[in-house]
Design brief:
Shape: elongated
Radius of gyration: 21 Å
Strand order of the largest sheet: 1-2
Helix content: 25-40%
CATH architecture of the domain at 2-96: 3-Layer(aba) Sandwich
Length: about 180
């Protein structure tokens, strides 16, 4: 229920922002698109509201998260419907300086981290799987379980599948690995 209320609040805040634009067919609202399916969906919904309810023109600018953050602060982009703020080093400073106005959260059901299937830690008696890493609780524990996550190119090592290279979370994960 809380999630739905936050989603509704975020959309209401966005619509309120558009209401200040008036019915000006000359105004174009530029949305940021960092390439995720979820942001494409949010842009489509908000863009439809901007076009149909407020008569605004809508464009989308594509780019990586850091590029879209800079474009938002510069004013080249008007709306960023989805931003993983923990991954943007300048976010808090940009917000404090007035370069960004945070209108709320679209959804709060996502987390970043390293994950393994539950059966690896707890086992699965129904499928006859015994716990393989019952003491795996933090990243540093992975060293004891490298045999469970064998690197096919070098079987003497384990492998961690992570983020797309260049994403901020990739750097975070590399630091955890080190």
């Amino acid at each position: 229920m809380k999630k739905k209320i936050l989603q509704l609040l975020g959309m209401v805040l966005f619509v309120g922002l558009l209401a200040g634009c008036g019915n000006n067919n000359e105004k174009t609202v530029v949305f940021s698109d960092a390439g995720w399916d979820s942001v494409k969906f949010h842009n489509a919904v908000a863009g439809l509201i901007a076009e149909k309810a407020y008569g605004l023109k809508v464009e989308t600018m594509n780019g990586s998260t850091p590029i879209m953050e800079a474009a938002l602060v510069r004013g080249d982009v008007d709306v960023n419907m989805e931003l993983w703020t923990d991954n943007v080093a300048t976010y808090q400073a940009d917000k404090a300086a007035g370069g960004i106005v945070d209108l709320g959260i679209n959804f709060d059901d996502n987390k970043q981290g390293l994950y393994v299937p539950r059966y690896v830690i707890e086992g699965d008696p129904q499928r006859g799987i015994a716990p393989m890493a019952p003491d795996l609780h933090k990243v540093s524990d992975l060293a004891r379980y490298s045999k469970l996550f064998v690197d096919e190119e070098n079987p003497s090592k384990g492998r961690i599948y992570g983020a797309i290279p260049g994403w901020a979370v990739d750097e975070v994960m590399f630091k955890k690995y080190k």
